[in-house]
Specification:
The chain is mainly α. It has one domain. It is built from 8 helices and no strands. Helix 1 crosses helix 3 and helix 5 packs across helix 6. The two termini are about 25 Å apart.
Length: about 140
Amino acid sequence: MLEELINLVKEHAGDAIINNPVIPNQHNDAAIRETASGIIKSLKSQMSGGNKGAITDLLKGESLSSDNPMVNNITQQVGSQLMKKFGLDSNAVGSVVSTLIPTVLNRLSQKTNDPNDNSFTMDGIINALGSGGGLLGKLRGLFK
């Protein structure tokens, strides 16, 4: 899933990363990877916190605006990682994540819901985030 998400971020990284002078060109690929990694880390954190319903709503395309707490959480997670990794200030990070994260999440939602595109599926994403499968998933089911 990480590689597919990296490709999705790369498709939409134009002005936010690639053409952004605050991120030197030699760091573009690393910034794209860090952005994809931050999205996954944030979603995994939400999953482990029991917010599977919010994740599925997000992937269905419901409430993808910046008012959504999950979108804000992902934006903050990615922004924090970019600040640490590249020494960017909060204004520079804001210009990177404010449009890129909602755009990537919107495309992720569209691809997840497109029956003709199997690059992302709801079950595949949920399983990759660590919910339903295996012993851990069964143990969680016992306590719900």
